[in-house]
Specification:
26% helix, alpha+beta, 243 residues, 5 helices
């Protein structure tokens, strides 16, 4: 895990949500919700102010100031994973933390980034892909689930590239709305394009009709996801069926 070692100086903290980055001031704090400093959605099931990020005692803290929603906070390696219940708080103890929560039928995810990490920027490791060299990118939990639900059949060898699920079928499998799935798909494709992926757009800014196929090919070729990662999709499915 990329533990934060600040050495007494409070590092900058930003939040990435829906492809945009928001810098967090150390005072008086930064609220997230239906009507917060970061407006997530007009979903009536979402608190007006759900989460609060602020600096206390020389550290960044995340507070759940809502009354009935719980957020899951985890690092990229899943060595840190905690449920942040209403009234709870926890320090930001990793350079990159994913925050995932559900309001009604909609799943939301955002990312807290401290220090100089750039979410969506290419890592140092590079993998050749056809005519392009693409950097390995850092995926949040929702983006990994999206790739896995599209690539599942290919990873298992039970179907070919021509049998990749439609957006509607994939959204239903994950328990997301189609607009939420499409938004996350758009953001993921943009992130991968910035890292060097090709074929996700048809030119002149138009979306490729084959981008789900190209996305699966790219993810498997660059080892963004593997068959071993399918356990995350199974866990997600089990959690949905038990609630």
């Amino acid at each position: 895990m990329g533990n934060v070692e600040w050495g007494g100086a409070l590092p900058p903290l930003s939040i990435e949500y829906a492809g945009e980055r928001h810098d967090v001031p150390s005072v008086p704090g930064f609220s997230i919700g239906r009507a917060g400093d970061l407006v997530i959605d007009d979903n009536p099931h979402l608190h007006r102010r759900f989460l609060m990020i602020r600096a206390e005692q020389g550290m960044w803290w995340i507070h759940n100031v809502g009354s009935h929603l719980t957020a899951t906070v985890c690092d990229r390696e899943r060595t840190l994973q905690a449920a942040l219940a209403p009234g709870g708080r926890m320090p930001v103890l990793a350079d990159i933390l994913d925050v995932i929560f559900t309001a009604g039928r909609t799943v939301y995810d955002l990312t807290l980034v401290t220090r100089s990490h750039g979410v969506g920027a290419a890592d140092e490791t590079e993998v050749g892909v056809g005519e392009a060299t693409a950097g390995r990118v850092s995926l949040n939990h929702a983006q990994r689930l999206l790739l896995l639900v599209l690539a599942e059949g290919v990873l298992l060898g039970t179907s070919g590239p021509g049998d990749i699920p439609t957006s509607t079928a994939a959204a239903k499998r994950l328990g997301w709305t189609v607009p939420a799935f499409t938004r996350r798909l758009d953001n993921l494709c943009l992130k991968l394009e910035r890292a060097g992926a090709r074929g996700l757009r048809a030119g002149a800014g138009r979306v490729s009709t084959h981008r789900r196929l190209r996305l699966v090919e790219y993810a498997i070729t660059t080892r963004l996801v593997s068959r071993a990662d399918l356990v995350l999709l199974e866990q997600h499915t089990r959690t949905r069926s038990s609630t």
